[in-house]
Amino acid sequence: MSAKFSLINEDRGARLGQIITPRGVIDTPAFMPVGTAATVKALTVEQINQTNSQIILCNTYHLHLRPGIERIQRVGGLHNFMNFQKPILTDSGGFQVMSLSKNTKITEDGAIFNSHVDGKKIFISPEISIDIQKKLNSDIIMVFDECPKYSKEKRMIKDSMNLSTRWAIRSKKEFGINSNKMLFGIVQGGIFNDLRLESLNKLKEIEFDGYALGGLAVGEPQVEMFNTVEAISSLMDKNKPRYLMGSGTPGDLLGAIKRGIDMFDCVLPTRSGRNGLAFTWEGKINLRNAKYQNDDTPLDKNIHCPASNLYSKNYLNHLINCNEILASTLITWHNVAFFQDLMKKIRNAIKNSKFIEFHNQHFKRLNA
User: Fold this and answer.
1) What is the pLDDT of residue 108?
2) Mean pLDDT for all residues in the chain
3) Residue 232, CA atoms < 13 Å, CB-side half-sphere
4) DSSP state of 280
5) Residue 243 in contact with residue 184, Cβ under 8 Å?
6) Structure pTM?
7) Nearest to 281 by CA among 222, 368, 202
8) What is the Rg, in whole angstroms, of the alpha carbon atoms belonging to the chain?
9) Where in the sequence numbering do the catalytic residues fall?
């Protein structure tokens, strides 16, 4: 079976679709929990599956450092290594060009990293990144790009965008032809719409299976992110998936879906869970707060997840304030389940052409 995207319905800007892969179907709009080092922190694969997550994201750079690609390739790739048999998307390492910039040198050939683990120099080029991702046997592979920090220096953003375009050409060549996998191009250009359009048009000439918006959710105000998404998403290929990288909050998801985005990833539900912050239909709640000592209700009795409906806020408050490991597991499990519940309800609203009403009903509360 070849990997492909099918657009099912459009509700003004919002889109309902499916990414069909040999490892399973991904209903879109889709949220991908982040499993950077072949683990979604604090959760077992069985718990991830229970949340109805249909795809996760893993990271090329971190897996290249630890445990090393040979150990993963030896067992046939990430799916067997971590016992997750659904689709996996791998980030290329381009984000680490920004996030680890103090330890990174950029050249035309690629990026030279000083390992954050042991300080050793590591070189990743577009060719090396794609080769690693192929050995990881991921289902959706990302081109290697330079993800610049939020900046209003247009010349710098343009130079970075042009480098990413040249790297995209090399990534496509290294990827070759494989109908079972998808290769996504990454549109750069910061908050400058003319640069975004220039980047997109060049990527369209190269031809990719999907297109991502990179270089957002990196410190810009939400309104600027939405303006950029709105300006560019409708110009992206209608019949290919659109992915907003590294975003976001429930409000980010609602706003970006309204503007035509199909795929998301973010560490927020897992990182927040480890810090006692839960996402609910009433908004965020900090379970460390003393008031929850007197609240014996579950986080959400209507979400089909044991962490959501079997444990009281009183108990979760006790766990988090005692630094019990179980707190991280239960709150993270609930958060991922909540994000997937949100996406399911969004898909249902688009299917019934009621997304705008759904957006208007929930955006303000979930975006607080």
Assistant:
1) 97
2) 96
3) 33
4) E
5) yes
6) 0.97
7) 368
8) 20
9) 91, 265
